[in-house]
Amino acid sequence: MSGCPSNDCLSLKIQMIHHTKNLKNIRIMNSDIIKNRSLYSSLLIFISAILILVQSGCEALRDEDTEVRHKPNIIFLVSEDNSAFLGSYGDSLAYTPNLDRFADSGIVYKNAFANAPVCAPARSSLITGMYANSLGSHHMRSLVEIPEDFRFFPHYLRDAGYYTVNRIKKDYNIFDQDGIWDNDEWWNYPDMLKDREEGQPFFVMYNTWMSHEDKLHGSREERMLEYYINSSIQPMTGEPASQERVNYFNHMHDPASMQLPPYHPDTPEMREDWARYYDAMSMMDDEIGEFLNNLERDGLLDNTIVFYFSDHGGVLGRSKRFTFESGLHVPFIVHVPEKYQHMVHDEPGSRTARVISFVDLAPTVMNLAGLEIPEHFQGEPFLGPNSGNGKEFAFGFRGRMDERYDLSLTVRNKDYRYIRNYMPHWPWAQRVNYLWRAESMKSWEQAYKDGRTDEYQSRFWEPKPAEELYSIHDDPHNVNNLASEQDYRHVLEEMRNAMEEWVFRTNSKSFIPEGEYLKALGENIGYEYFTGRNYDLGHIYEIASLATLGDPVHLPELENALLHEDSIIRYWGAVGARILGNESEELEDLLIRNLEYESLDVRIASAEALYFLGHRKEVFATLKEILQNREFEPFGPMEAIRTHALNAVDVMQPEDKLQFKEEIEAIASREGNGYDKRVAEYLLTQLGF
Fold first, then answer.
1. N or C: which terminal CB in the chain sees fewer CB atoms within 10 Å?
2. By CB neighbour count within 10 A (0-12 exposed, 13-18 middle, 19+ buried), where does 61 fall?
3. pTM for the whole thing?
């Protein structure tokens, strides 16, 4: 923020007074001037009027400056990958004394949700105030352009005089925007507000990595705890990490005392990873505690509204990346100092059942800062003036997760979670390189192969139902699907209708194949193209919904879809044929014709459907041609298309995968670290190369 505007006003007033005095001292030298006394008087009146205007303008600027300096400071403390493993949320295994004390004097939200169960699309929704699948930024680690007037919300704060700060991590799936941050390359607490003017309000996004998924990778000794403590906590305490402190955080929780969820098999590796993650939660809590201590020491806590939350749920298998409670429900606590208590409904130390999600954060911050909420924001404020009584539903989505394609949408109210799976033929347990680095995942997979898993634990490795419905109170782990229960038919209909309304209200891009969307962006017809009459969402949604039911009664609709001029509708026609398997034989000719269609995503979906109808030659030729493309633009359409094609190869029999050995080796050996390369490397391992 610039210097105090009143200084400029004072200078201008002094100059005006000086010129007025000079005018009064003008000696009337001749009769011509005497004759113009009236003109002289008019000039004095004019200058006096100007002085009055300057005075009032200065007072207005001074008032505006004072108003800005009395706005609340706002901080987001964002941990990574963790569900509500906190004592303040009733977890008896958690040792989180700092966040528990924070909750004692704050507002605890019992129904807070990320909009996506993985960091980048969740943060995309958070920073824009719009659902990522409305923007086309819903695939993990994609990179898309959005309209210029859809600014990240800190931009509006900065324009209003706030000093805006972000600690390194962005990960928004969107090309970076200028003019958002005053300071976004800092790490240590002392550097956080280094260029802020005295009294200037600030907004800080403080990201901590202490609870990230990587804490499960490698042995306990390889987790780099000493590095994490020295790099994050030591600058706030002034003390380097002692071996005693490292050991303390490394062995706090006993694997034997872990309480496993019903979907996890009881293996030594699973218990070990659960214990290690609770250790990581305690280490994260320690960092948050030191941050709050420093904030209080610097006299900032009484002027600052502090939010703590995780960027999504997690982190062991079937949590992060998946649209269950374990992937989307997050801890969420807000500290509101006494001077701003008039801006909120809830008392310190209270717990609220109000339903909120990340898309509500941007409008909430704008509301607390006294700023107008942009019309394109899709959430609603839950704190500050006119924050209302809350909403009934929180919505979520899943697109591609790293190198694996999938599509699920979900809606949650206070009592139930509904999930709609649009790729039910693919199991939840698609092999994701990063997830499989945890020994617990490998042990779960081996237990399933050995027949040592029960119904709940086996389900993760098998095809999904098209619809899921869970009672939150009776079934917090989401293992008892009520979607087919007649007693819950009315709930199912209500949740279906809520989801459909949300899909259309937000103009969802979830149903567009990623390659198609990125290709459109490259041709400068991206977001705007898919918001106009060219994007027939009603027809697309209808076909995608019936295609994924796997019911041959819908063969006529699938036939029409495979002939449609819209490539997205053709794509879902092919997906429907793949789900039907042998029951889609009457669509063979159309599927073969679509192997020549201009859209490569349509070709891939058609090839996969034909493979399960017994076709080989045409399928191999189609996929080979696509995989031989050597366009390696990072985050470009061909990387997405090759990833899609390799996913189709991965479902083939081992002897058929060998037909693609040359193409797979070429992709696996290329430079960079694209998701197509990850699938190729896995396929080579599968094939023994």
1. C
2. middle
3. 0.90
Instruction: State the Cα–Cα distance between residues 115 and 171, nearest whole angstrom.
Output: 15
Angle at 257 between CA 251 and CA 260, to 5 degrees: 110
Percent of residues, the chain, with pLDDT higher than 90: 81
* pLDDT of the residue at 677: 97
Instruction: Report yes or no: 61 and 13 within 8 Å, Cβ to Cβ.
Output: no
CATH 1.25.10 fits 503-686, yes or no: yes
Distances (CA, A) of 109 to 246, 323, 364, 445: 32, 19, 14, 35
Structure tokens at 381: 């404020």
Calpha distance 4→196 (Å, rounded): 14
Q: Are 489 and 118 a contacting pair, CB within 8 Å? A: no
Phi, psi of 451 (to 5 degrees): 75, 25
- Which of 470, 450, 448 shows the shortest CA–CA distance to 461? 448
What is the spatial distance between Cα 161 and Cα 371, in angstroms, rounded to a whole number?
A: 11
pLDDT in tens, 416-438: 999 999 999 999 999 999 999 99
Handedness of CA 36, 39, 45, 49 (dihedral sign): negative
Q: Quickly list DSSP for 273-316.
A: HHHHHHHHHHHHHHHHHHHHHHHHHTT-GGGEEEEEEESS---S
Between helix 617-627 and helix 600-611 the angle, nearest 10°, is 150
Q: Give the pLDDT confidence of 312-324 residue by residue, as tens digits.
A: 999 999 999 999 9
pLDDT in tens, 4-51: 444 444 444 434 444 444 444 434 344 443 345 555 555 556 666 665
Cβ contact 164:203 at 8 Å: yes
Task: Give the C-alpha distances (Å, rounded to integers) separating 454 from 178, 255, 364, 457.
Answer: 52, 21, 44, 5
pLDDT value, residue 67: 65
User: What does the chain come to in residues?
Assistant: 689
Q: Could you write out the three-class secondary structure of 483-538? A: CCCHHHHHHHHHHHHHHHHHHHHCCCCCCCCHHHHHHHHHCCCCCCHHHCCCCCHH
Tell me the Cα Rg of the chain.
30
**What number of CA atoms fall less than 13 Å from residue 11's CA on the CB side?**
5
Q: How far apart are CA 444 and CA 434, in angstroms?
A: 15
- The more confident residue out of 58 and 194 is 194
pLDDT digits (tens, 9 = 90+) for 655-681: 999 999 999 999 999 988 899 999 999
pLDDT in tens, 577-629: 999 999 999 999 999 999 999 999 999 999 999 999 999 999 999 999 999 99
Token pair listed for 684? 């080579």
pLDDT at 5: 43
Tokens of 440: 């617990």
- Considering only residues 603 and 220, tell me which one the structure prediction assigns the higher pLDDT: 603
Q: How far apart are CA 574 and CA 603, in angstroms?
A: 9
CATH number of 73-216+300-402: 3.40.720.10
Can you give 413-440 as a three-state secondary structure string?
A: CCCEEEEEECCCCCCCCCCCCCHHHEHH
Residues paired with 310 in a beta bridge: 79
CA distance 125 to 238: 36
By the 10 Å C-beta count (0-12 exposed, 13-18 middle, 19+ buried), 79 is classed as: buried
What is the edge-to-edge ordering of all strands in the sheet holding 350-357? 163-166, 202-207, 73-79, 304-310, 332-335, 107-113, 350-357
SS3 letters across 594-641: HHHCCCHHHHHHHHHHHHCCCCCHHHHHHHHHHHCCCCCCCCCHHHHH
| Bridge pairing between strands 304-310 and 467-471 | unpaired
